[in-house]
Amino acid sequence: MKYDNPRVDVHRLYDDSRLTAIGLFAEVHAGLMSRFAPALSAAGLSEIDFETLIRLARSPGQRLRMSDLAGQTGLSTSGVTRVVDRLEREELVQREACTTDRRTSYTVLTAAGAERLERVLPQHLQDIEDLFTGLLGADELETFLGTLRKIRTIVRPCATAGAETPSPCEP
């Protein structure tokens, strides 16, 4: 399709630094995930399995409410239920009912789940160092992390749900 608006310089439109920024970000994310996949796969974990387990491991008491886990992973309620069901069948997590609110249940990392993470983490951390953080100086990394947190606060406000008091996603 030809763009016929004479008031718009099409080449300037296509050569916008905003397109470059999001394109580079998407390419880097996709490239990193594909490079991380072999180590995760060798441990019998998908990307979302690993994300779920590491979020539980890094949470207070190695547990999160199901709703907070959904918020942190960006999955729908039914999506997180399917992931937790699968991880529970593998005995990597377990569900616990809340003693004070019958409507709430927690997902808790099990010893087997922690062991699976401990098996994959040395290689995963080395991959992160080799392909990402090790390419940046200390100041660059600190600035980059601050920038990512600033953006995350806007695009995924529930990414720390359950890790803060009160949660940004609680009504």
Automatic annotation (TrEMBL):
Signal peptide: none annotated. Coiled coil: none annotated. Transmembrane segments: none annotated. Pfam families: MarR. Residues 1-153 form the HTH marR-type domain. It comes from the Bacteria. InterPro entries: HTH_MarR-typ, MarR/SlyA-like, WH-like_DNA-bd_sf, WH_DNA-bd_sf. PANTHER family: MARR FAMILY REGULATORY PROTEIN, TRANSCRIPTIONAL REGULATOR, MARR FAMILY. This is MarR family transcriptional regulator. It comes from Nonomuraea maheshkhaliensis.
